[in-house]
Amino acid sequence: MGIKAFQEEVLKLKKEKDVCILAHSYQSREITEIADLVGDSFALSAAAAKMPQKTVIMCGVRFMAETVKILSPEKTVYLANPLAGCPMADQMDRDLIRQVRERFPDYTVVCYINTTTELKTVCDVCVTSSSAVRIIEKLPDKNILFIPDKQLGGYVAKRLPEKNFKLLSGGCPTHLRAGRRALEKARALYPDALLLAHPECLPDITEAADYVGSTSGIVAYAKQSGAREFIIGTELSILAHLQYDCPEKRFYPLSIDLVCHNMKITTLTDVRDCLRGTGGERITLDEETRLQAKKCIDRMIALGN
Ligand code: 13P
Ligand code: SF4
Fold it and tell me: Could you list the pLDDT tens digit for every one of the 305 residues in the chain?
């Protein structure tokens, strides 16, 4: 069966079963084309809460499906491929953060949305890659312990010198694959291109970038920019989507190693099986954990995410 025919089968099932399909923008084109909503992690969860469908399938990684469930407990939420985790979200656990909190009781714990539900239960406020600077700036607290991403935390700390930051050494293994050598190579190959980078990248990359932002920020910047060539410093699917959406512009990889294998594990077969009721994983969260984790998301929303 060709991709188009497979997609049509999935779209037919989706309509029959009245299911909302979410796709993170690091998903492949064959998946984003059959999705109701495509975007970055928190935006998808917030938008899903407003969709009329009672069942949601997340084509992304586990923490994203959990965030959908935290915000929409009345919906039935599936992770299309149960193997899709996020190595960064799994780097720290509740006990570690409890111990760190005991050591630094006067620090406010800020967590990136890319964390497990369990970890969110011991954090004070959550941020996304696009809102981190704005939310932390608005916090009355001066002492900030940022987890888990040292790169995003370091990027925010440089922009808010009035705060005291403590960082733990977590990070995204995908974005960490591009360093100074990749940058030099890309600059030499594409000297006229603007560099657009995700704040999960190393400081060598974000300091050299013409624009730093979330996945949706990078996409919006490239689309509205008058420039014609761009080096994309984030997961390679963003490059592929931009090349389809802006055929008159040119997009180049910062490094061909910027592939998130967890994001790429989900296939059309997974989505079809999930729709048929023979695949995917139904996300369940015990109510106490969900409510405790939701507190740090609610605080982010109150601060104006
Ligand atoms: P955003 O989608 O929030 O930009 O995060 C990037 C990422 O690594 C998602 O896993
Ligand atoms: Fe996790 Fe990085 Fe993959 Fe995003 S790109 S899901 S942070 S491993």
Answer: 899 999 999 999 999 999 999 999 999 999 999 999 999 989 999 999 999 999 999 999 999 999 999 999 999 999 999 999 999 999 999 999 999 999 999 999 999 999 999 999 999 999 999 999 999 999 999 999 999 999 999 999 999 999 999 999 999 999 999 999 999 999 999 999 999 999 999 999 999 999 999 999 999 999 999 999 999 999 999 999 999 999 999 999 999 999 999 999 999 999 999 999 999 999 999 999 999 999 999 999 999 86
Q: What is the length of the chain?
A: 305
Q: Which residues, in sequence order, are bridge partners of residue 111?
A: 126, 147
Single-letter residue type at 27? Q
Smallest-distance ligand from the CA of 261: 2
CA of 143 to the centre of ligand 1 (A): 25
For 94-172, give the CATH class.
alpha beta
The answer to whether the CB of 117 is under 6 A from ligand 1 is no
Which ligand gives the minimal distance to the CA of 148? Answer: 2
235 C-alpha to center of ligand 1: Å? 9
Topology of domain 3-86+263-284, per CATH? Rossmann fold (3.40.50)
Angstrom distance (rounded) from CA 35 to CA 64: 15
Residue 182 Cα to ligand 2 midpoint, Å, equals 19
Q: Which value, to the nearest 10 degrees, does the dihedral of the CA atoms of residues 295, 299, 304, 305 take?
A: -50
Is 114's C-beta closer than 6 angstroms to any atom of ligand 1?
yes
- Domains of the chain by residue range: 3-86+263-284, 94-172, 175-259
Residues with CB under 6 A from ligand 2: 61, 86-88, 114, 172-174, 235, 260, 262-263
pTM of the model: 0.96
